[in-house]
Design goal:
- About 30% of the residues lie in helices and about 15% in strands.
- By secondary structure, the chain is of the alpha/beta class.
- The strands form 3 sheets. A 5-stranded mixed β-sheet has the order 3-2-1-12-13, with helices on one face. Strands 4-5-9-11-10 form a 5-stranded mixed β-sheet, covered by helices on one side.
- The chain is globular.
């Protein structure tokens, strides 16, 4: 049995099928770990959702910011952007079933010393603490009050963690760290305006994984979200968003031996894309 982590798919269904064929994936024996952002900007989000959902226990999926955006749009709490490609999902006969499945996905998944999360973890969070905080969000999103949760999801404040946070502010910090964060200060203040490469960090901020006192530095964080950074492999980090939707590559990494598998991608067409 092998486990393959796959980077941000973002509706690039044809490339996903090519990658799955390349790794000779065996459902029921192998597993696929998806770093989130299954949907949006690519042309076939509906097909991606159906395919991954049908994998059942052969797939582990964490939520990304685009997946949450789809849920918020579907409930009327957010508007589509010019470069969104969500209409096929929203008009599908199985839309509600797919959205319900999405709402039941975790924010974070951990197995031994490996942690799967879309964007990152704040430096003051241990793995155990992050798992507890993720569970708080999962309870809200998967429960009867999910519409209230989605209605208060958007915003970049508060921009740092405090144990005293409650309600929507608390959940927003958790979600923003796990699905949006790229740069933060050494004491965990998040910065969301900068979306470029690692070396364009604004003054006072560094990539979240470079914080020296990060409490998860002894774990292996498997993540995506940062297409401008591209492939980032180190002992404690597997960053595998290699910009498929931007016309670069879709990446899988076999966790047991870190062997890489990649397929080339066609850039999504349409209005200018935002990262």
């Amino acid at each position: 049995m092998a486990t393959y982590a796959i980077g941000d798919v973002q509706g690039c269904f044809d490339e996903l099928l090519q990658l799955v064929a390349k790794i000779e994936f065996k459902p029921g024996a192998d597993r696929l770990w998806f770093v989130g952002d299954l949907v949006n900007r690519g042309p076939q989000s509906l097909e991606v959702l159906r395919y991954v959902k049908d994998l059942g226990e052969s797939a582990v999926v964490v939520l990304g910011n685009h997946d949450l955006h789809l849920l918020a749009v579907a409930e009327g709490f957010a508007s589509q952007h010019n470069d969104d490609t969500l209409n096929a999902v929203l008009s599908a006969p199985d839309c509600r079933e797919l959205l319900s499945w999405l709402r039941g996905l975790p924010m974070l998944y951990r197995e031994e010393n490996r942690v799967l999360v879309h964007a990152g973890l704040l430096p003051q969070w241990t793995t155990c603490m992050a798992a507890r905080l993720a569970a708080e969000v999962e309870e809200e999103l998967g429960g009867s009050r999910y519409r209230e949760f989605l209605s208060r999801l958007y915003g970049s404040k508060p921009d740092h963690w405090s144990d005293d946070l409650r309600g929507a502010d608390r959940w927003r910090v958790i979600v923003n760290a796990m699905t949006r964060m790229r740069f933060c200060s050494t004491d965990g203040v998040m910065e969301f305006a900068t979306k470029g490469e690692v070396d364009v960090a604004p003054a006072g901020f560094i990539p979240w994984f470079d914080v020296p006192a990060r409490k998860t530095k002894d774990d292996v964080i498997v993540c995506g979200h940062w297409s401008a950074m591209g492939l980032k492999i180190s002992p404690g980090l597997l960053g595998i968003d290699t910009g498929c939707v931007w016309g670069r590559r879709l990446t899988a990494i076999r966790l047991e031996d870190r062997r890489l598998f990649q397929v080339g991608c066609r850039p999504a067409s349409g209005p200018a894309l935002r990262q």
